[in-house]
Amino acid sequence: MGANKNWLDPAFEAIAIDDHGRVCKEIPESACQEEAGNFFTHVSALSLSKSADALIDPKLVLSWLLTHLGAPAAAIGLLVPVREAGALLPQLFTAAGLRRLPLRKFAWSAGAAAQGAASIAIAFVALTMTGAAAGWLILFLLALLAIARSICSVTYKDVLGKTIDKSRRGAATGLAGSTAAVTAIVFALLLTSGIAPRETLAPIAIMIAGACWVAAAVFFLSLTEEKGAVDGGANAFSEAVKHFNYLKSEPQLRRFILARGLLTATALAPPFMVAAASKQGAAYSQLGLLVLASAAASLASSFIWGKLSDRSSRRVLFFASIGGACALAAAAVFGAAGNLGHSLALPIILFALMIAYQGVRLGRSTHLVDMATEETRGAYTALSNTVIGLLLLAGGIFGVIASIIGAAGVLGVMAIMCGLAAPIAYGLDDVQNC
Q1: What is the dihedral of CA 230, 231, 233, 238, to 10 degrees?
Q2: CA quadruple 196, 200, 206, 207: dihedral positive or negative?
C-alpha cells in the first residue's frame, strides 16, 4: 500500500478487523494491500448513493411531490413500478456485457453520475412546472434514473468482491446503510421543523441527492481496482427463457415466485397511502413524519428480520405477509372512512407497513439463495427477477384502478394480495433446515 494510504490503516482495523486479524482469504495480496483505502472509498461512495436514495424516495418523497404538483393518479401510481422494474429488467440484457469489462468501476461511476443528472433534472421540473406535464416528465426522468441504477447494481457487487475481502464486505455496506438512515432522519426532522416550506425543501433535497450521486461517482473513480475475469457472464434473459420449464418442474420455486409477486404490494402501496391521506389534507403536512416512520422502521427491523431469516426465511415471509395485510387493511379502512388524515394514523400505519416491507426484502433474498443449489442458483435468480420485474411494471395498472375506485380501494386490493401471500409463504419448504 502506498504511503499516502497508511494513515487509514488504524481506522480500517478498528472498524472492520475482527479478533482473527487482518487476513485476506478471497482477494489477492495486491488487492489486500490496498484494502484500507478501498474500504473507505466504498463506504464514502455507497453512503452518498444510499443517502441520495433516501432523499428522493419514490414511495414517499416523489409521491408526495407529485400529489402536491397536481399530477394525475396514474403517474403517481407508476412511480414505484417504474423505479423498481426500471432498475431490475435492464439488468437481464446488460449484465453479460458489463461483466465483460475488466475494470467495472468506470461503469458504476457513469451510472451514479447519470442518476445524479436525472435527479437534478427532476428537482428543476418540480420547481418550474405543475400538473400532468410535471408528473409525466418526472416519471420519464425517474425511468432514466432507474436504468442508470441498474448499471450500478450489476457492477457494484463485482467491484466489491474484487477489492474487499469477504469478511469485511458486510461492514462496508452496513456502515453505509447506517449513514443513509441518519440522512433520512435528518431530512425528516427538517421537514417537520417548519424551517422552510415542504414544497421547497423536497425539491432542494432531490437536488442534493443529485449532488450526492455525482460526488459518489467521483469518489468511486479513486478506487484501486485490478482487472478481473471477463468470461462467464451469460445473458440473464436468455437464461430465464432457457430455464422457464423450472416453473413447471419446481413447485417450490413456483410457490416462491407467486408469494414474492403478491408481496410486491408492500412496495407499491405507500404512494396510494399518501394519495388517500392527501384527499383528507393530512399527507401534505406529514411528509416529515412519513419519512421518519420509514427510516425508523428500517432501523428497528432490518437486523431482526435478517437474523430470523437465517433461521427460517419461510416464517419471515409468512409473518411479513400477515403484517403487510394488517397494515394495508387498516389503511384501506381508515382511508374509506375519511380518517387516514387524522392525528398520527398515517405515520403509524406506514411504520407497520415498512416493517413488513423490510421482512419481505430480507426474507425473499435469503430464501432464494438457500433454496437453490450452486447449479440452479443463477437460473432461479434470473427467472425470478424476470417474472417479478414484469409484475412490477404491470403494477402501474393500480394507478388507473385508483382513478376509478379511489386510493383506498386500491389499498384494500393490496391488503388482499398480502393476505393471499400468507398461506402460500407458509407452504414453502423450511430451506434453512433442509
Answers
A1: 140
A2: negative
Which of 419, 56, 29 lies closest to 213 in space, CA to CA?
56
Query: Residue 91 is placed in which grid cell?
Result: 439488468
As given in the structure block, the three cell numbers for residue 410 are 386500491
Half-sphere exposure of 103 (CA within 13 A, CB side): 11
Which residue is listed with cell 472498524?
15
| Residue whose C-alpha cell reads 478506487 in the numeric block | 223
Q: Which amino acid is at 43?
A: V
Those residues with Cβ within 8 angstroms of residue 248's Cβ, 6 or more apart along the chain or in another chain = 254
CA dihedral sign, ordered 415, 421, 425, 427: positive
- Nearest to residue 266, comparing CAs of 411, 132, 147? 411
All 3 cell numbers of residue 391?
A: 409484475
**CB-based contacts of 7: which residues, under 8 Å, 6+ apart?**
none
61 touches 206 (CB < 8 A): yes
Torsions phi, psi for 93 (to 5 deg): -105, -25
Secondary structure class of 333 (helix, strand, coil): helix
- Residues 69 and 126 sit within 8 Å (Cβ to Cβ): yes
Q: What distance in Å separates the CA atoms of residue 4 and residue 37, rounded to the nearest whole number?
A: 9
Grid cell, residue 18, equals 475482527
Q: Which residue has the cell 416464517?
A: 315
Q: Which three cell numbers stand for residue 202?
A: 423536497
Distance, in Å, from the CA atom of 330 to the CA atom of 350, rounded to the nearest integer, reads 10
Q: 10 Å Cβ neighbour count for 133?
A: 12
d(CA 137, CA 154): 26
Task: Enumerate the H helices of 130-235 as residue ranges.
Answer: 131-163, 166-193, 198-221
Please give the single-letter amino acid code of residue 419: G
Q: How far apart are CA 53 and CA 47, in angstroms?
A: 10
* Cell numbers at 65, concatenated: 411531490
pLDDT at 3: 45
Residue 128, all three cell numbers? 418550474
- Stretches in the chain below the pLDDT threshold 50: 1-4, 7, 14-16, 18-21
Residue found under cell 403517481:
76
User: Amino acid identity of 41?
Assistant: T
CA 62/CA 75 separation, integer angstroms = 11
- What domains are there in the chain, each with its CATH number? 30-225 (1.20.1250.20), 242-434 (1.20.1250.20)
369 by Cβ neighbours in 10 Å (0-12 / 13-18 / 19+) ranks as: middle
Q: Would you state the pLDDT for residue 4?
A: 44
